[in-house]
Amino acid sequence: MAKALALLLFLLPALAQGALSPLKDHPLARQAQALLQAAAKALEAQASPLALNVQGNYARLGYECTPPSLCQSLPATGGSLTLALVLTPFPFGDVQDSLERARIAYRRAELGYRKVLTALQTQAVAAYGRYQLALLGEKVAQKGVELAQAALEAARKRQANPKELREAELALKEAENRLLEAQRNVELARKGAEGLVDLTKPLPEIPPPQGTTPLSLEEARLSLEEARIAHMSALRTLFPEVKASYLLYPSGNDTLALSLSSRTLQPTLAYTRQDPAQRPTSLPGVGSYRTLEEMRLSFSLTLSPGLFAALEAAEAQVRGAEEALKAAERQARLQEETLNNSLKTLRTSLELARLRLEAQERTLAETKKRLELGLESPLALLQAELSLAQAELALAQAESDLRTKWMELYQFYGELLPEVTP
């Protein structure tokens, strides 16, 4: 349990504050966290060094006696109680297999936890980007309405012909419709971000991921480990099982036993109290005797075509898991190269968008100066402001595309954003 909690503390710092803080309360995140805690408890149960077993039985006895008076001296009931302590000084055989399977299940739950959180993190970053783009889209649409209104007023002032007036009025109507659509997009983007990201806080910077082992490779390796465990388990069924026991009989009612099996090497200490007591064995004309101690050795071996078929099936599963791991390695390399190439392209696009924005800012400044000198019309200023808003939208789109690609790389590795002060 301590290991699981340490893992949670390691994975969640980026979600504890800032724009991504809603993710820690997301239902899918809570579900993945619960599954991880369950796997940790299951591993803890398998790793327990001892177990206590209690068994009891009760019986009612009936007899047929010769002479009949003998039945009166025989007990009418019988029972026993056994307390057994099973020790696991070290994992071996079937016990080791169970422990390794529990460790694999815990590791799968950990990978599932990372997969869920990185997917939610990717959705949150994308939702934040869509909202910012929707706001800029609304700004562009508002500038378009202002420009269309100014164009219509200019057409009216210069007494343009009816066709030009109709076209100006239609352009204004279209601009107003685009503004209404942009406003609806803002509201939809806000609703889409609910439960994923806090839109009132700035998004943390997204640095390059550390580039650890991809999730797909880790999952393929776990499948191979699982197949190898199944193969060893099938192989052990072909070997004989030897059991050794040493029993002490301090009295007719009490039994102390120490037993060990070659399948698990788990020593078992047991105490049994039975009633009625075991009577001494009588030898007619000689006397009687009672066993004080006993050593038992048992040997068990089962051979069948089914066991050999199961072994061949386990070997085939190992070969299949090995080939799946090779395929996963090739696919991971290809996906990693594809993502990195896409990042290079998006960085170039982002740089071009920044240059366009700088150019539009200079153009707007020049237009303002020319307007002050009477060399430009107010309509040209509105056009320059619209072009600047469009350049800002294009830059935000390029930044959002780059962030999204970064998050795909984070999701590829199963990494979470580090804690960064915005």
From TrEMBL:
* Matches recorded under SUPFAM superfamilies: Outer membrane efflux proteins (OEP)
* Coiled-coil boundaries: 163-192, 311-401
Please state where this protein is localized: Cell outer membrane
Keyword annotations for this protein, in alphabetical order, are: Cell outer membrane, Coiled coil, Membrane, Signal, Transmembrane, Transmembrane beta strand, Transport
Q: What is its main location?
A: membrane
Homology family: Belongs to the outer membrane factor (OMF) (TC 1.B.17) family.
Name of the protein in its database record:
Transporter
State the species of origin.
Answer: Thermus scotoductus
Phylogenetic classification of the source organism: Bacteria, Thermotogati, Deinococcota, Deinococci, Thermales
